[in-house]
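hi!! sorry for the late reply, been swamped w classes. u asked for the two structures so here they r. pasted raw, havent cleaned anything up. first the sequence of the first protein and right below it the tokens
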Amino acid sequence: MEINNLFSVKNKVAVVTGGSRGIGEMITAGFLANGAKVYITARKAPALIEKAKELSKLYDGECIPFPCDLSTSEGIDSFSNMIAENEDGIDYLINNAGAAWGEPFESFSEAGWDKVMDLNVKSIFFLTQKMKPLLIKRATLEDPSRVINIGSIDGLNVPGFPTFSYSTSKAAVHHLTRHLAAQLVPENIIVNAIAPGPYPSNMLGSAVNSDYSEIEKRNPRKRTGSPEDIAGLVIFLCSRAGAYVVGETIATDGGLVKTAGHILG
């Protein structure tokens, strides 16, 4: 029951998609700071490679980059093959890579719909499928492997922005999490989802012109999420402390979903 053992991820191997910025970078940093080796992927190679070097140095750990496009089957195959060539197994798969698209309802494009659904939903299913043999290698009854899918409170609430495919994709992620949890738990692989609210990121920043003040004012906690908030939740779910939590979608949003209607009137 000692706390360092209860929440330990030391010497584990984690894969974080979209790990070079935003929430993915926060999760990667949390793993590295606590002794895990982390593989990260994103589409933009120079930024990904630079971020891996930066985080490895900052936390005196191993952050290994592999640029690819997970919205394609070729990208998923190349990434999963690279991991298999370098590791006998992995402990954690964090399906974080995602995209958003906003257009008025009347002109919302098929390209915007497909781009978001391919990366946000389809890639989670097929990457988890490809990574299953690696997850099984480390999985035991006492210490199961973990898959965490990053959804969004936009998949729980109706968002204020015209991001129709994004909110739909995140609702799909939450349900896919339950389906995958039922499929994989007999093999000692635990699947859960996290639904973040507002966290500083390129995605949210572009929607609010990098001005978070109004979002902070409307949040019950009067702030946006911090790296500690998201990394702490991921570490809980991946550690011994979270080993009995299965198929859940946990919001980390400062209370927006459950209390904001009451607070804001």
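now the second protein. again sequence first, tokens right under
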Amino acid sequence: MRTPITVAATLAALLIPVAAASAGTSSVAVLGDTPYGNVQLANFPTDIDDLNADQDVDAVVHLGDIKSGSTKCTDEYFATIRAQFDRLKDPLVYTPGDNEWTDCHRVNNGAYNPLERLAKIREVFFNRHYRTLGRPMPIIDQSSRGLPENKLWSKQRVVLSTVHVVGSNDSLAPWTGATAPTAEQQAEHDARLRGNLAWIRSTFSAAKLTNARAVVLGMQADMWDPAAAAAGQTTAFVPIVEEIAKQAKSFKKPVLLINGDSHLFTQDTPLATPGPLYPNAVAAPNLTRVTVQGSTNSPRDWLKLRLSTSGAPLSWSRVPFTSQAS
């Protein structure tokens, strides 16, 4: 098995030509927790048209939850979303959310085995290893560890990475009829956690080796969601938060964590002074966290993330969707 530094060196070798070729500014469209329900699903082609029409955007990131938490997790639904993703004129990086696999045990979701749905998600959306969805672009991923959804790329001397961390306590919320995670549920989580921690370390190592100006991490889970915390649904995030804090502090330069999950736009610095949820995390004031707007909340918008080789490496603004129907 490769050591983390060997993996990082490999990643850096692949990223350096890309980073060196980048100059100026570019923009990434970031969205999540959409489409939710029949109205948004019907208008999803219009959302895709909006992203295609923005000439500043040259990549798209979807932070997961491609359906609401109370609708069926059917093969047909997944195929419908994949068809719309394929219409994107820019490369798309998608990281799964809990609604499309973890929570599919719910009766109103179809009473599926979530692990079977995770396998289907990977079959439908991650069938092309080392390539993006939308317009195909070569990309680094963690297929070697069975996590093809973990992606890494570089643009404008910024390293961007997605990490498969989901709500519902990172998949450990008990399934319908159970009071604790099943053995297979725990095993999947533990394997994914090991891969995620290695991926986070490799992301920051590659950023250092390429002298990146900033790091962007994207995931579905809101690891500081007050509602989840009150329900005891943040315990599984402890090692993830501690690793991100450690790596961000060591990196010293700007780090942006973007997530969905809790649906309301938020911008904060949750690791400036780690709170009671994660008391053992080191302080990392250079990390900013942004939660994108989602679900049926108004206004409906997406985040335009600007990457630059001069001045501030990262900036962002909210852009409304043409369709405000929810």
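hope this helps!! also noticed smth abt the second:
Confidence is low (pLDDT under 50) at residues 1-5.
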